Amino acid sequence: MKILFYGDSNTWGYDAKDASRQKNRFTQFIKQEFSQHEIIEEGLCGRTLCLDDPYDEDRNGTKMISMVLKTHAPIDVVFIMLGTNDAKRQFSTNSISLEKGIRTLLYRALNPEIYRDGSKVPQFFVVCPPKMNRDGLNNERTKENFGDAGFEILNNTKPYLEKGCRDFDVEVIDTHAIAGSIDGIHMDESGHKQVADVLISVIQEL
What we know:
The protein has one domain: SGNH hydrolase (Rossmann fold, 3-Layer(aba) Sandwich), CATH 3.40.50. The chain contains eight helices and five strands; from the N terminus they run βααβαβαβαααβα. The protein is of the alpha/beta class. The protein has helices spanning 9-12, 26-33, 61-72, 95-109, 140-145, 147-154, 158-165, 189-204; strands spanning 2-7, 38-43, 77-81, 123-127, 171-173. This is SGNH hydrolase-type esterase domain-containing protein. InterPro entries: Ester_Hydrolysis_Enzymes, SGNH_hydro, SGNH_hydro_sf. Residues 5-193 form the SGNH hydrolase-type esterase domain. Pfam families: Lipase_GDSL_2.
């Protein structure tokens, strides 16, 4: 089975301690559990659901998803974990933006044009981004980028993601992971392990 993880810096494994890439990220734990499966990591720092970052146009997850799906086709399962960067103050968003954002991305991801070569349509799952750790608001950069409004958005994502997924019959998974305390946005090893444990259980049922 070929499984693709499409996400942002938490999928990439960003380490808030030194900006390096964590070895013990959730995708690696999953690889260790399922050596018989092909695990593909498509994590990009700063990636959004569907918003254009004025500082880097490649961060728009909707614009990139079809290229990624075509690159790795055929794919059996896709896990999408996005939404953190959509809560940045620069985008002036709110919780409803998550609903609209995941709906927009899934419209693109499920476009029959992507699969016209005969590739099968993968089974999609949407994973809630980790909840923001309030300690992160003591981090100047996090406070400037997200603020209290971002904290509120990221601590109640599931209802809005579920509304956005309803038309596609795509399950939303809440791992209940909380980001680490250094910047409040990126998971530490314990957070990655929690995400991995939940997703391993999901994969075992497929």
